[in-house]
Amino acid sequence: EVQLVESGGGLVQPGGSLRLSCAASGFMFTNHAMTWVRQTPGKGLEWVSGIDTGGTGTYYADSVKGRFAISRDNSKNTVYLQMDSLRAEDTAVYYCARNMKSDLDYWGQGTLVTVFS
Amino acid sequence: QSVLTQPPSASGTPGQRVSISCSGSSSNIGRNTVNWYQQVPGTAPKLLIFRNSQRPSGVPDRFSASKSATSASLAISGLQSEDEADYYCAAWDDSLNGRVFGGGTKLTVL
User: Fold this and answer.
1) Chain B residues whose beta carbon lies within 8 Å of the beta carbon of residue A95
2) I want to staple A64 with a disulfide (CB 3.0 to 4.6 A). Which of A68, B33, B37, B65 is the partner?
3) Residue A101: band (very low, low, confident or very high) from pLDDT cuts 50, 70, 90
4) DSSP per-residue string spanning chain A
5) Other CB atoms closer than 10 Å to residue A102's CB: what's the count?
């Protein structure tokens, strides 16, 4: 069974940092690109970042470029999202999702990040 | 403002057929495949449609979708109360070099 379990969310002040993790199981992790998507409470979905299977190709939304960094450890079946210089508008539930070619076919349950002053 | 445009709400009675539209542009829907996701409040999104019109295993054939030029649509026939959820379209955008979502459509089963 495919499982994606996010962790690392929490409360942080503006300008602070957090690192989210997404532990994958139930599939061949090295065969899939991975993606982070966020959802502001009560609002819609926003693509944040993606990473290819080897970890060398990374992609970012303009809203997080230069502040967030995606990475993966294929030996640990885990993808990360390092979030620096956090802003109030980064407050959201962050989901990791598995890429199946151009589709996001499995999603984790999400982890809440709250940036408050 | 979402790159893909969806109506904010839709509704129908049990047994009816409803459609949800998704409008994009040549850089996203016009060049790439469209996905649809279903999200029941408080849960993660679930892939409903991939590659414009394909259903993952387990998704009832009451759900169907199509794409034409720079627009797409999702249809739900034989509406059931369990279909009440938020529905999102998505596609890769070649100009933004990123994935874009619609703003979501809240489906209410009356």
Assistant:
1) 44-45
2) A68
3) confident
4) --EEEEE--EEE-TT--EEEEEEEESS-GGG--EEEEEE-TTS-EEEEEEE-SSS--EEE-TTTTTTEEEEEETTTTEEEEEE-S--GGG-EEEEEEEEETTEEEEE---EEEEE--
5) 16
Tokens 């002053």 belong to: A117
Residue B30 has pLDDT above 80, yes or no: yes
Close Cβ partners of B58 (under 8 Å, ≥ 6 residues apart) = none
**Structure confidence by residue, pLDDT tens digits, B68-103:** 999 999 999 999 999 999 999 999 999 999 999 999
Whether A102 shows a pLDDT value over 80: the answer reads: no
The two structure tokens encoding residue B102 = 């619609």
Q: Hey, what amino acid is at B36?
A: W
Q: Chain A contacts of B99, Cβ < 8 Å?
A: 35, 37, 47, 50, 104
Q: How crowded is the C-beta side of A31, counted as CA atoms within 13 Å?
A: 5
B110 to chain A nearest CA, in Å?
A: 21
- Contacts with A, B 9-68, CB within 8 Å: 32-33, 35, 37, 43-47, 50-51, 56
The pLDDT value recorded for residue B1 is 81
Q: B47 vs A105: CB contact, 8 Å cut-off? A: yes
Two tokens, residue A112:
């809440």
Contacts of B32 in chain A (CB under 8 A): 102
Show the CA angle centred on residue A86, arms to residues A82 and A91, nearest 5°.
100
